[in-house]
Design a protein that fits this description.
Elements lengths: L1 E5 L11 H11 L3 E8 L9 E4 L2 E7 L8 H22 L7 E6 L5 H11 L2 E6 L5 H5 L8 H16 L2 E4 L2 H10 L8 E3 L15 H7 L7 E6 L8 H10 L6 E6 L5 H8 L7 E4 L4 H10 L2 E5 L11 H7 L4 E5 L5 H7 L3 E5 L3 H12 L2 H18 L2 H9 L9
Parallel strand pairs: 1-2, 1-5, 2-4, 5-6, 6-7, 7-8, 9-10, 9-12, 10-11, 12-13, 13-14
Antiparallel strand pairs: 3-4
Helix pairs in contact: 1-15, 2-3, 3-5, 7-10, 11-14
Length: 403
């Protein structure tokens, strides 16, 4: 099959994420994979095709999408569909695509999906990673039933109607979409979770050395929260826990990544004396992998969202056999999944006493950490590898095309 993968989240050449892992599996299964992604240069680009691990990648100059004003981001997203269409027609003129796969965000490519599906008589599989416009409502960008909400809601409905199948990250996510969009047939919505290529060569040696390099105590239970640092995580809650545990030597926190709330964390942590946290904005990839291997517990924080979320950082924790401590609200089932599979504990975001009790439990029970960590790795192997993602998607098309 000829696969067209459309995304604004394809990484730089040589880097990997959920989507490169999944498309690598399609290549491994002898499909022809074409990717159209974006780049964020201010200067015009030549938009040339590059071969990346057997995948033909075309990056379109999208204009600013991240770390910019809402108005500029909107302009870039609204013009992106036409840019991508022109790029496809120019650089892939003789390719007939059998299957189109694309994740959200954005939701503003609905017209592009519809045109491409009609042009190639192709099937379209939507990977639903973020739910918009409700996500913008949760972040306070605009209100429900406002003019922007109505505009984005129109795109959302068109996308769902165009899709032949919609893969949601968890069972609660699938039920949410069906409950809020009663026009969607139940048999076109399924669980197609985040998935990664399993790494069987994790080096767990050197933990003492990497801890010493970054001032992480050798004898503490280290809790890590790394990745996007945004408003939806309720990071003030984590800071309060760190403050209350400032004199508890058995727990240490590693927090890092990029996002709108990194500066917020910096400022909050300056308000009280502490020696139990290492905050970073960026680390060399080798150092980050070593730190992740040397940590003891992965943290999941979800607060502001009213739509089901399933952060991809969970897969990194499971890959490295780390137990998971969740502090989440009632709108996600990630905590339930973690607890039901014996790979961690779930608390209510905002209940500081419950959260601190869980931190102390992990800090004082090494054998339980090890047991839950093994269960976490098993959960990943059984449910969240790209082999599973590939099979879920191709189950709908395996008898339609010969490759």
């Amino acid at each position: 099959m000829n696969i067209l993968f459309i995304t604004i989240a394809w990484p730089k050449s040589g880097e990997r994420n959920l989507y490169t892992d999944l498309m690598d599996e399609f290549v491994l299964q002898k499909h022809n994979v074409y990717v159209i992604g974006t780049q964020y240069d201010e200067l015009p680009s030549d938009n040339e095709i590059k071969d990346e691990n057997g995948i033909k990648v075309l990056r379109i100059n999208s204009g600013k999408i991240r770390k910019t004003s809402h108005l500029r981001k909107l302009f870039s997203l609204l013009t992106l569909g036409n840019k991508m269409l022109r790029g496809i027609e120019k650089h892939f003129p003789d390719i007939v695509f059998n299957l189109i796969i694309s994740p959200t965000p954005p939701i503003t490519l609905s017209t592009l999906y519809k045109k491409l599906k009609h042009k190639y008589n192709a099937r379209f599989y939507l990977l639903l990673k973020d739910i918009w416009p409700q996500g913008s409502v949760d972040h306070g960008v605009f209100s429900r039933y406002s003019i922007p909400w109505l505009f984005f809601r129109q795109h959302e409905i068109r996308t769902y109607k165009t899709a032949d199948y919609i893969g949601c990250m968890s069972p609660l996510g699938a039920e949410y979409i069906l409950s809020k969009n009663t026009y969607i047939a139940r048999n076109k919505v399924e669980v197609c979770p985040n998935c990664i290529q399993l790494n069987n060569n994790i080096d767990e040696n050197g933990g003492e050395k990497i801890r010493a390099k970054y001032g992480i105590p050798a004898d503490a239970c280290v809790f890590i929260f790394s990745g996007n640092l945004g408003i939806g995580h309720g990071l003030g809650f984590l800071v309060e826990a760190i403050k209350q545990l400032a004199d508890y030597p058995k727990a240490f926190f590693v927090i890092g990544g990029s996002g709108t709330h990194f500066r917020f964390l910096e400022d909050k942590l300056k308000e009280f004396p502490h020696k139990n946290v290492f905050l970073y904005n960026w680390l060399p990839s080798d150092d980050f992998n070593q730190i992740l291997a040397a940590c003891d517990v992965g943290l999941i924080l979800l607060y502001k969202y009213t739509v089901p979320q399933f952060p991809s950082r969970l897969l990194s924790y499971m890959e490295y056999s780390k137990p998971i401590l969740c502090a989440v609200n009632q709108y996600t089932d990630i905590g339930t999944i973690v607890e039901n599979h014996g790979c961690g504990c779930s608390t209510i975001h905002g209940n500081i006493n419950e959260f601190i009790s869980a931190i102390k439990y992990f800090s004082e029970n090494k054998s339980e950490r090890q047991r839950m960590g093994k269960n976490a790795r098993k959960l990943l192997i059984d449910n969240y590898t790209v082999v599973h993602g590939y099979k879920i998607i191709m189950n709908h098309f395996k008898n339609q095309y010969i490759h």
